[in-house]
Each structure stands twice: as structure tokens, then as C-alpha cells.
Here is the input.
Amino acid sequence: MSKVVLVTGGSRGIGAAVVSSLKDCGMTVYAASRSGKVETEGAFGVVMDVNSAESIASAVDRILKEQGRLDAVVVNAGNGIAGAMEEYSEEEMRYQFETNFFGAIKTINGCIPALRASRGRIIAVTSVAALLPLPYQGLYSSVKAALQMAVKAYSVELKPFGIQCCAVLPGDTSTGFTAARKFSAASSSVDSPYKERFDRCIAKIEKDETGGMPPSRIASAVKRQICRRRMKTTVIPRLDYWAIGLLVRLLPERMVLWIVGLLYNS
Ligand SMILES: NC(=O)c1ccc[n+]([C@@H]2O[C@H](COP(=O)([O-])OP(=O)(O)OC[C@H]3O[C@@H](n4cnc5c(N)ncnc54)[C@H](OP(=O)(O)O)[C@@H]3O)[C@@H](O)[C@H]2O)c1
Here is the structure.
């Protein structure tokens, strides 16, 4: 029986590549986003805002009405706001946590009753930034680390129901994420004591992202997990990023932070 999968942030970037890759191997795929756009022929577009529990409930209801089941959710919708930790306004902090954390949790919780029935799967797209405090992306790193831990907590709590959970951690990937990034007003101001370092770091981060791997690389990793009998709990696509993950675990923390500062000239 073809698996039925809901992908959030499915209109472009990594989510659109996941939709295409799952559809290619015969799955029934719902691509959710605020625009409801879908690139892949044969996949279903869903207008859904991950920050609205009602919107999530109506998307899940539609899938259950149309397909009678939901086998997996890929929690991928996300965004970034760059700034110095000291300078984020409360509104900017809430913006960073809204979609990436609360939206992800609301989506997972909205899908769990259906996943319990199918003994289904949850895949969250977090980031290698969850392992390292990227300078001037500190809130983004924090929110992805929070989601990373939440996935592990779900994994323990949902095991008795046969639901498997996995976090996929992309490194730099070339998508619309870079253009969509917002900037903290205070850190962008000429009066900011961080201004010069902030501009230098963001230029490097943007260069790394635009020259990053294609979203199809992350999509293959997601597909592989959905197709496996037992999912891994954490997956870091591409050997170099996987090696970074290993080094972070092996090296003393002080050395890791020193290397991060050196790499980003922060
Ligand atoms: N690109 C990278 O280098 C990179 C690296 C590590 C991790 N990631 C993570 O990968 C995920 C996908 O990012 P991407 O690079 O593919 O970015 P992207 O190209 O900007 O795509 C973001 C997707 O999220 C959707 N979205 C945003 N807010 C939403 C909301 N409130 N409700 C529903 N959908 C929403 C967008 O569609 P609408 O605007 O139509 O809603 C779009 O489909 C994110 O979680 C990101 O943090 C990206």
C-alpha cells in the first residue's frame, strides 16, 4: 500500500525536493505551506500555516477523508532571523521560535492521533546549526537545538505506540531560505557595536548557503529514512557535515567554540 505523507514547507526548497522524491517512489504526498503551491505533478497542495492549530487540524482531516490514513509527517517549514544575541527584540525572538519550534510541535501533535493509528513516522528537518552556535544565528541554533531535543523526547514517549521519530540535520543547502532570512533591526543598524562583524559573518553564511548542496541531497536522506524498516534517530546528510557532528561530540567544548569563532572570523 502506498504510504501517505504530509510535508510542511513543501512549496519550495528542501520541502519541495522531499515531495518530489517521495512522489517519485510512489508515495501519496501532501505538500503544505501558507501558499499551498506544489511543484510536483500528482502531489497535493495544502494551504496550511504551521502556526495555526485549526489550519493543521483541517489539513489532517482532509488527508484522512481523502486517503483514510496518514503514515508520516515531515516537519520542515522554517525560517531564520540573523542578529546578535544581545540585540534581538522580544518580537524577533518570538518570530524565530514561532514557526521553527512551536509550529513544528503543533504540527507533530496535530498528526499524532492519525500516526498512532498507522504506527507512523515523524521526521523533523532541524539543522547542523543545532550542534554549533553559529555567530549571529544564535537564536536559529537555539531553536533547532530545542527541536532536536524535542524529537528525542517524542521518540521515547511515542515508542509504545509504534511511532518512530527521526531528526535530519542539513548543512548549507541552496534554497530560498537565504533570500527569505530576516535581520534583527538593532544588529543591522550602523549604531550596533556588532555591525562590522555581523555584516562579515552574514556575508560568509550567505555565501556558504548559496554555494551549498542541492535540496535533493536532503530529500534523499529523508526518503531513505521513510523507506527503512527502522529509522535512525539522527541523520546528518553528507560526509563532511557528518564529520563536523562527530568532531563536536569528540572535541572539548572550548575548542569547538574557538574553531567556530575562527571559521566565522567573528
Ligand atoms: N537552506 C539551508 O541551508 C538549511 C540548512 C539547515 C536547515 N534548514 C532547514 O530546512 C527547512 C527548510 O528550509 P529551506 O531551506 O527549504 O527554506 P525555504 O526555501 O525558505 O522554504 C521554506 C518553506 O517553509 C514554508 N513555510 C514558512 N513558514 C511557514 C508556515 N508558517 N507555515 C507553513 N509553511 C511555512 C514556505 O512556504 P510558504 O512561504 O508558502 O509558507 C516554504 O515552503 C527549514 O526548517 C530550515 O531551517 C535549511
Remarks:
- The mean pLDDT is 97.
- The pocket of NAP is lined by residues 8-9, 11-15, 33-35, 48-51, 76-79, 99, 103, 125, 127, 170, 172-173, 175-177, 180, 209, 212 (CB under 6 Å).
- The two ends are 52 Å apart (CA to CA).
- The domain at 4-264 is CATH 3.40.50.720 (Rossmann fold).
